[in-house]
Automatic annotation (TrEMBL):
Native organism taxonomy: Bacteria, Pseudomonadati, Pseudomonadota, Gammaproteobacteria, Oceanospirillales
Highest taxon of source: Bacteria
Coiled-coil parts of chain: none
Stretches assigned to the GGDEF domain: 51-143
Protein's name according to its UniProt entry: GGDEF domain-containing protein
Entry-linked NCBIfam families: GGDEF (TIGR00254)
Species of provenance: Vreelandella sulfidaeris
Length: 143
């Protein structure tokens, strides 16, 4: 006698629940919960595995003004564009997350190196992010 069960629907439901728990629905970036878990796992690394890195908090100035004057769809469009630009800066193992509203965090990891080399790597990375975020954003057919 054999019992055959199709787990396809169950696996699909589990994937949906995981996505809802750990990813932002609008931008599809990891959310605060996944970021905190990632930071906790980095803190738990053995001393020999520890790496240097950069934790960058980003907040969009005057975002409320965009929502109030152009509408929430324009604000949503801006958040999505920012998310895609942040993702374009990520190297393997890095993370861009949306904390809430107009707040983002970028976590970049570098190979363990001297303080001076770490500072140079962080400066280079921040400049890359600045260049990615600088071009014009299009909201409701307006630049």
């Amino acid at each position: 006698m054999a019992i055959v069960e199709d787990f396809t629907e169950r696996k699909r439901a589990e994937a949906i629940i995981y996505r809802q728990a750990f990813y932002d629905a609008l931008t599809d970036l990891p959310n605060r919960r996944l970021l905190i878990e990632r930071l906790a796992s980095l803190c738990d690394e053995h001393e020999a595995e520890k790496r240097g890195g950069l934790l960058m908090f980003l907040d969009l100035d005057h975002f409320k003004l965009i929502n109030d004057t152009l509408g929430h769809s324009a604000g949503d469009s801006l958040l999505i564009q920012v998310a895609r630009r942040l993702e374009s800066c990520l190297a393997e193992g890095d993370l861009a997350a949306r904390l809430s509203g107009d707040e983002f965090v970028l976590l970049a990891l570098f190979d363990k190196c001297s303080d001076e080399a770490l500072e140079i790597s962080a400066e280079t990375y921040m400049h890359k992010v600045q260049l990615a975020l600088s071009p014009t954003y299009w909201l409701e057919n307006r630049g």
